[in-house]
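Hi everyone,

Forwarding the result from last night's run.
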Amino acid sequence: MKLLVLNGPNLNMLGIREPSVYGHQTYDDLCTLIRDHAAKIGADVEIYQSNHEGDLVDKIQSAYQRVNGIVINPAAYTHTSVALLDALKAVGIPAVEVHISDVSKREEFRQVSYVRPYCRATIAGHGFNGYLEAMDLLMAEANV
């Protein structure tokens, strides 16, 4: 099983950006947690972060026929990017949307997700563990 974990804008600033919302752990801490969990569940994992929408679209497209599942935290692009939705639909790879914070309890504009209609599930408000839950969900779906 090959998983792609995609992270959108400003997630590289974890630990610095709004620690009251996102915590004090860093992006490197998140990547280590994801890699360790992938090894535990027997998955190959590729992790990618970009602050640029087109880079994320390119990464999704490059996953075509190469990856079995996508864990995506589009960050701010969640609420603005039809392009990410279209890329996910184009490649047809099962995906799970993840948010570190509970976006349902934040600003009104954060209630809209353009990628959600494609994704198998949305996991929000579980901190870094949401990524692990998403990986487990994709693994379980692949083993059914």
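The longest helix spans residues 27-41.

Cheers,
N.
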